[in-house]
Amino acid sequence: MQQVTETQQSQTIMPQPPNVITTKDQLYLSDMLSWNLLAMKKAHFFARQCQDQEISHMLDQTGAMHQKHYQQILTHLQSNQQQQIPVQ
């Protein structure tokens, strides 16, 4: 128990993230964009295949949510790109 407390005390808390995007961060962001785009496409595809209007509507809402997430990530990346964040 004492070892856990010492480890927690030795870690410093960053008030805000550094102005650097690592290659690993960039790959993860790219994956997030891909996952949201794929989820959006699949939800809209299945909504068109569905006979039940209630389920079709829910799938359309799900697709719209993923599209919104995709746009939010993309907008955030574009606004940060204008600030010239270096990639390491």
Explain the overall architecture.
The structure is a single chain. With 88 residues, this protein is mostly helical. The protein has helices spanning 2-10, 23-49, 53-82. It has one domain (19-82). The radius of gyration is 20 Å and the shape is elongated. The model has no long low-confidence stretch (mean pLDDT 84).
| Domains, number | 1
- Listing every helix as H and every strand as E from the N terminus to the C terminus, the arrangement reads HHH
Amount of helix: over 70%
Strand content: under 5%
Task: Please give the alpha-carbon distance between the first and last residues.
Answer: 37 Å
Shape: elongated
Q: Please, what is the average pLDDT?
A: 84
The major pleated sheet works out as: none
Tell me the layout of helices and strands.
Blueprint: H1 2-10, H2 23-49, H3 53-82
Helix pairs in contact: 2-3
Task: Please tag this protein with its features.
single chain; 88 residues; 3 helices; mainly alpha
Concise description?
This protein has three helices and no strands.
